[in-house]
């Protein structure tokens, strides 16, 4: 019995050493990844509390005496607050419209059976192959004819149309995994199609809706190309367009540049922190269930 116990003990030791080695390598990789992502963000935030000369002379040193002059300049002289509001209105409006129309379209495609269902899916997948730059000229002409250039709708509508296909496909893939028994029970309880969507499919599909919302918000919020073309007026200019202007007009004021970048990233972090727990679940559960 003693040799058998000794052999089993050796096997456990080998497994433990392998596990320790794998865990160590995993932590090393995660640490290296965090240094390439978290540290640059910390570097920008740290330099936002320095004047321009300190950023040039000691950009990698910790700001022991932080100053708020860059933040006061950003809101007083550059009117960063107005651009914040513009970005939140346009990106938030885009997210709401995409979730509404994309959710309804996904519900129809996932739970109804009709002849044109497969061609519609094929058409939706085909539209993903069309580059956004190819639609700029016709979209701009439509906005001019409808007098929507340099208005909130001038960016909300193009962003909604551009993100609608992605939202529809993701949400439809998730809704198709919902059990039919749940739908049949709702019919027995007297729910119509709208009530079923609002009270059953929307709550059950919240992970998918949350995943879509974060991606749509990021794409809309960071779309500098469309912002420079469709809403280049100062009264409706989003924050990414203002950041581009700051880099061209105040390119030598590195403290102000760091402040602008910091303030641009804050809304993204806030939105992500609120719905981060739904993102991974929404992207993976539809592929696993059923």
Automatic annotation (TrEMBL):
<protein>
    <submittedName>
        <fullName>Sugar ABC transporter</fullName>
    </submittedName>
</protein>
<feature type="transmembrane region" description="Helical">
    <location>
        <begin position="254"/>
        <end position="275"/>
    </location>
</feature>
<dbReference type="GO" id="GO:0055085">
    <property type="term" value="P:transmembrane transport"/>
</dbReference>
<dbReference type="InterPro" id="IPR000515">
    <property type="entry name" value="MetI-like"/>
</dbReference>
<dbReference type="Pfam" id="PF00528">
    <property type="entry name" value="BPD_transp_1"/>
</dbReference>
<feature type="transmembrane region" description="Helical">
    <location>
        <begin position="21"/>
        <end position="42"/>
    </location>
</feature>
<feature type="transmembrane region" description="Helical">
    <location>
        <begin position="196"/>
        <end position="221"/>
    </location>
</feature>
<keyword id="KW-1003">Cell membrane</keyword>
<keyword id="KW-0813">Transport</keyword>
<feature type="domain" description="ABC transmembrane type-1">
    <location>
        <begin position="84"/>
        <end position="275"/>
    </location>
</feature>
<feature type="transmembrane region" description="Helical">
    <location>
        <begin position="152"/>
        <end position="175"/>
    </location>
</feature>
<keyword id="KW-0812">Transmembrane</keyword>
<feature type="transmembrane region" description="Helical">
    <location>
        <begin position="122"/>
        <end position="140"/>
    </location>
</feature>
<dbReference type="GO" id="GO:0005886">
    <property type="term" value="C:plasma membrane"/>
</dbReference>
<keyword id="KW-0472">Membrane</keyword>
<dbReference type="InterPro" id="IPR035906">
    <property type="entry name" value="MetI-like_sf"/>
</dbReference>
<comment type="similarity">
    <text>Belongs to the binding-protein-dependent transport system permease family.</text>
</comment>
<feature type="transmembrane region" description="Helical">
    <location>
        <begin position="88"/>
        <end position="110"/>
    </location>
</feature>
<keyword id="KW-1133">Transmembrane helix</keyword>
């Amino acid at each position: 019995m003693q040799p058998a116990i000794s052999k089993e003990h050796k096997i456990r030791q080998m497994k433990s050493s392998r596990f320790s080695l794998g865990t160590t390598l995993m932590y090393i990789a995660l640490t290296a990844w965090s240094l390439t992502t978290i540290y640059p963000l910390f570097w920008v935030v740290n330099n936002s509390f320095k004047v321009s000369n300190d950023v040039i002379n000691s950009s990698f040193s910790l700001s022991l005496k932080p100053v708020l002059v860059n933040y006061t300049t950003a809101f007083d002289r550059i009117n960063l607050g107005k651009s914040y509001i513009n970005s939140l209105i346009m990106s938030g409006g885009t997210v709401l419209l995409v979730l509404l129309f994309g959710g309804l379209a996904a519900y129809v495609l996932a739970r109804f059976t009709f002849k044109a269902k497969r061609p519609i899916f094929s058409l939706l997948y085909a539209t993903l192959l069309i580059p956004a730059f190819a639609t700029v000229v016709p979209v701009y002409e439509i906005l001019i004819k409808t007098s929507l250039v340099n208005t909130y709708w001038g960016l909300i509508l193009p962003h909604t149309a551009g993100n609608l296909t992605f939202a529809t496909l993701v949400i439809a893939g998730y809704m198709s995994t919902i059990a039919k028994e749940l739908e049949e029970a709702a019919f027995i309880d007297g729910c119509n199609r709208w009530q079923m969507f609002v009270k059953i499919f929307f709550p059950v599909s919240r992970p998918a809706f949350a995943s879509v919302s974060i991606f749509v918000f990021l794409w809309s919020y960071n779309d500098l190309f469309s912002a420079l073309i469709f809403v280049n007026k100062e009264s409706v200019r989003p924050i990414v367009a203002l950041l581009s202007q700051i880099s061209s007009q105040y390119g030598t004021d590195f403290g102000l540049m760091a402040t602008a970048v910091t303030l641009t990233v804050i809304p993204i972090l806030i939105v992500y922190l609120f719905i981060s727990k739904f993102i991974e679940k929404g992207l993976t559960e539809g592929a696993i269930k059923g």
